[in-house]
Amino acid sequence: MLLIRRTVAAVLVCFCGRVCCGQSAPGAVAPDAVTSSLPDGPAAASNASLTGVVTDQEGGLLPGAHVEITAGGRTIVQLADGTGAFHAYGLPAGPYTVHAVASGFEAALESGTLEVAEQKELAPLALSATVATSVSVVATSHDIAVAQVAAEEKQRVLGVIPNFYVVYFKNPAPLTAQQKFHMAWRSTLDPVSFLGAGFGAGVQQATGGIDGWGYNRKGYAQRYGANFADGAISTFLGGAILPMLFHQDPRYYWQGTGTKMSRAKHAIASVVVSHGDDGRREFNYSSVLGNFASAGLSNLYYPAANRNGAGLTLRNAALGSAFGAFAAIMQEFVVPKLTPHRPASGPLPDPLHDN
Fold first, then answer.
1. Angle 246-248-254 (CA atoms, 0-180°, nearest 5)?
2. How far is it, in rounded angstroms, from Cα 60 to Cα 84?
3. In sequence order, what are the beta bridge partners of 248?
4. pTM for the full model?
5. Where are the domains of the chain?
6. pLDDT tens across 175-202, in order?
7. What is the pLDDT of residues 75-133, one digit of tens each?
8. How is residue 182 annotated by DSSP?
C-alpha cells in the first residue's frame, strides 16, 4: 500500500487526453453517361488500408495478438504491436476479413467491404477469454511470477509514471524475496522517482515547508534528499523487507468487477488486509508497520525544529494509512483507465510461449 501513493499523487498532478480521428475517402465512381464499343480497360489500382486494435472484453490491450487480414485473394499476417494495434496498407477494393486470436482467448472475425483508396479504422476487436481444458506443459509458480513481474514493470500511468505494484491478473503467483527486492529497486531508481522528489522539494521550498532548513540552494538540496529518502525507505520497508519477513504480497489486487460499493470497500480494506504468499487474506503487517517505521526513521534526518518525537511519528503514520486508503480507491477506479499498457485482466501471461 505504501508503494502506490507516489503513483496516485503524480496522477493527481498530471492529466492528458488523447483524441483519435480517422477519415475515409470514398472510391471514385466513373460516369455512366458515356458508352463505348471498346472493351473495358483494367480497374484502377486501389490503395485502401485497414487499422484496428485487439483487446479483451474489458478493454485491456492484447499486444502480440495474431492477426490475419485477407483482401483480394491476398493474406497479410501480423502480430499486434505493444499497444495492441495492427495496420494493413495497399489493400484492393472489395470484400475483406480480419481474423484475430491470442493465447488464452477465443478468435474474433471481422468482415466488410473496402472502397477504392478507403482508409478504414475498425472498431476494437474484443476477444473473449477461453476456458482452459488441458495442457501438455506446466509452468512452475516461479515461471509465472517472472512473467507477471515483467508485465507489471510495463505498467505506467499516462505511459510515464510507474505503476508496478498493482496486480490486474486473477490469482497471481507469489513473489519470491528476490523479486520483491527487484521491484523495490526498479521503483526507487526509476527516473520519475528522482523527478518526483525534486518536484516535492520545490513545492516545500515555495510554500515554506520544513522551515528548519533554509530557502537557498542548500535548503533545496536538503529537502530533495529528504523527499527521496522518504520514498526509498517507504518502498523498501513496505515493498520488500517487511513483505519478505511476513511472507506477504506488497501489491494491490485490483478487483475490477462488482458494485462500486464492494470495490470501494475492497480498496479501503487493503490498507489493513493483504494477501499472504500462500494466497490467504491476512492482516497487512507490511503496510501498517511500514507506515510507523517510515515515519519513525524520518526523525533521523529531518531538522530538530520539525521533529516531535512519538507525536509526529503517530501523526505521520495515521496520515500514511489515510492516504493509502485514498490511493487504493484511485487505483481501483481511476488509474486503470490511465494505464494504456496494463495487461488484460483475464488470463495470466504464458511464460512458456509469450516471451
1. 160
2. 9
3. 276
4. 0.59
5. 2-11+139-338
6. 999 999 999 999 999 999 999 999 999 9
7. 988 899 988 999 988 899 999 999 999 988 999 999 999 899 899 999 999 999 886 55
8. H
Q: How far apart are CA 285 and CA 244, in angstroms?
A: 11
SS3 297: helix
At 253, which amino acid appears?
A: Y
d(CA 309, CA 248): 29
Cell of 231: 520514498
Question: How many Cα atoms within 13 Å fall on the side-chain side of residue 338?
Answer: 22
User: 148, 156, 159, 157: which is closest to 182 by C-alpha?
Assistant: 148
User: What is the total residue count of the chain?
Assistant: 355
Q: For residue 97, what are the β-bridge partners?
A: 70, 111
Q: What is the mean pLDDT of the chain?
A: 83
Alpha-carbon distance of 186 to 145, in angstroms, equals 16
- 65: nearest Cα among 57, 52, 77, 54: 54
